[in-house]
Target: DUF72 domain-containing protein
Amino acid sequence: MQDELFEAPPLRRARGVQPVPPDVGDLALAKALSPRVHLGTSSWSYPGWEGLVWAGRHSESTLSRTGLPAYAAHPLLRAVGIDRGFYRPLAASDFERHAQQVPRGFRFTVKAPSLVTDALLRTEDGRGQEANPLFLDPVAARRDFIEPVCEGLGDRIGALVFQLSPLPPQRLACMNEQLDLLHDLLLALPRPPAGVIAVEVRNAEWLGPDLVALLRDARACYCLGLHPKLPPLPDQLPLLRAMWPGPLVARWNLNRLHGPFGYEAAEKRYGEFDALMDPDPDTRATLARVIRGTAGAGQEAFVTISNKAEGCAPLSVRALARAIVDG
Model:
C-alpha cells in the first residue's frame, strides 16, 4: 500500500525533464519511512539538482513548467512547497495542473499570498511601505487563497500556511489586537478537504499561550519556522507540546549562521545548490525526533526544506530521512 501511494505517475514522453534513476539507498530509506511523513523541498525549479533529481541539464523556466513529475518520482520527495502564490494569487487551474502531476500520497505545502499576510504593502523591491488594508482579511483570504487551493489541489493538500511577515513597530506595540485579527481570520475559513491550516510567524512576540489558545480554538496548527528571526528550534518546542496531539508542519527556511536578513548571502554562498555546504546536524537530529514522535502517534508530518538551510535541499531531505530512520 505504501509503495502504491508514492509510486510516481509514468512520464508521458521520453523527452523533456526525466528523473534520475532511483538510488538504492534512497529506496531503502523511503521504504523505512512512515507514509505519514511527507518530506520535500520549498520549490522544484533548480538546474543545479542535475544528477540529484533531474537526469540532464534544464533551465529554471523549463523545470518550473514541466519538472514536477520528475521531482515527484524521487523516492524521498513526498512533498513540495508552492511559494510563488505569495507574490501573486494563483488560480484553481494552476493548482489543479500541479495536482495532476504527482502520485496520490504526495502533498503540497502552500504559502498564502502576501496580500493577506503582510501588514505593510510591498514596493517593487519587496520592502514594506504603506499599511495594508487587507492584512488578515477573512474575505480576501478565502477568495484568493483557500478556495482556489482547495478546488485545485483537493486531497493533495498538506499544509496551507499563513506566514505572517515581520510586523511594524506600531502593530508590535498592540499584540492583543493582532491576535484577535488572526483568531477572527482562522475562525472564518472553511476546512480544507485534506491537510491542515497552519500559521508561521516572523516575530517572537507572537509566541506564547495566547497563540496556542487561538490556534486550538480555530483547529489550526503552529508551523515551526526554522529561521534566524525566531528562537532556535528547541525553544519553539514547548509551543508544540502545548498543542499536542496534532499534525506537524515545519518549514526549514534559512541556516541561522546567515542571520535574520541572510537570504542573499546564503544564495551567493550556495551557488548551484548542489552540495551541503553548511550542514546542521543538531537541527536535523531535533527535527527528526519531533517527526518520529508525530508519526509514531498516528499524526501527519509535513516538512519542507529550502536550499538555504544547508546548501542543497534534496541532500538535506536525504540526511533528515536518514536521521529519522536511524533514530
Q: What stands out?
A: The CA atoms of residues 122 and 128 lie 4 Å apart.
